[in-house]
Write the structure tokens for this entry.
Amino acid sequence: MRTNEEIEDLLIGTGLPFERLDDAMWVVVNDADRGENLVVYKTAALVAFRMKVFELPASPPPGLLRRLLELNAASMVHGAYGVEGGSVVMVDALEAENLDANELVAVIDSFGLALSAHRDELAGFLA
């Protein structure tokens, strides 16, 4: 099982700026291409990832939620879009026991790629 210190060492290895928020929670700080901050947190058996994409209007535009599901099925390499409270988020989870640097970077890169690829299309629903 990966310890919190081992997970932090993996985060250090990415070279990305991050802050430790709690004993088992970190935030990878936003840069120009990644949108919101990426929250990484460890539960007993999982390392979970969550990034806010945008605020969801009170009445979601027609077709937006369907399109998010289509993107999940067709082009999300790691994780998925979801709705949490009043926001659209990207989420993923990996087993803490097997987490390695390659998996961690793959999730971070996948989130960044999804934002780059889908940002304009999704913003069109909010215009």
Observations:
- The domain at 4-126 is CATH 3.30.1460.10 (Yope Regulator; Chain: A,).
